[in-house]
Amino acid sequence: MAAYLLLIKEGSSVSQNFVSGAEEAGTKNHSEPDSSDPEGATSDSRLDKRSSSEGGRDSGKSKGEGTKAHVDADSASPEEIMRTHWELITKGDYEGAFRLFHSSYRNRIGRRWVRIKEKQRPQIGLETMKFTQVGEPREDVVTMRADFVTADTAGKDANRCMHWTGSLRLQLVNGRWRYRPGPFDGMSEPTLDGTKIAASDSRCKSVL
């Protein structure tokens, strides 16, 4: 899903900034103001209504139509937040997915994240997605191991099926779990490693 500066050969593995795709925007590590509400300013539970009613701009083409993003974002567990984040992306609701990031990441990456996803139009294999929570020394931080398959349906990497494994992190802010990519408070940055797999692979059926 990210835009790659490296040529990924089939069967090879590479670690990339999977989340942001900032390389494509040519603005990595530059900030852009975010107009989204900061954590705690307003309730994000409206994601429930908006996602189910709009279904995203691409709901007609989504491979994940059978899964509805119905989470109450104020009380959802870390795994529910992550599953909903990917469901919203698959349904084409990039604005909704963007709101589930921690405000520090939204402010750092800016709304170009949404524009990048609009160009890539990614699909995620929701049915085979796996999460496993691992220990953290802090009660307000959760790290999860992730395993899933994706494919962009537009852009220069269209129809490239990728298998991703690695870790991601969430932080509890004002009682709400939010997806927080990148390092913070001395913690190392979680990474996702992507391997290109053949379109004929059974794991790709849900995204191609």
Number of strands: 7
What structural class do helix, strand and pairing data support?
alpha+beta
What name does CATH use for the topology?
Nuclear Transport Factor 2, Chain: A
Mean pLDDT score: 76
Percent strand equals 15-25%
| CATH architecture classification | Roll
Domain count: the total is 1
List SSEs in N-to-C order: EHHHHHHEEEEEE
- Please bin the fraction of helical residues: 10-25%
Helix count from the secondary structure assignment: 6
How far is the N terminus from the C terminus?
A: 13 Å
Residue stretches low in confidence (pLDDT < 50, at least 5 long) are 1-17, 22-36, 40-46, 48-62, 64-68
Q: What profile does the largest beta sheet have?
A: 7 strands, antiparallel
Give the class-level CATH name: Alpha Beta
**What does the overall shape look like?**
globular
- Using only C-alpha atoms, the radius of gyration works out to 16 Å
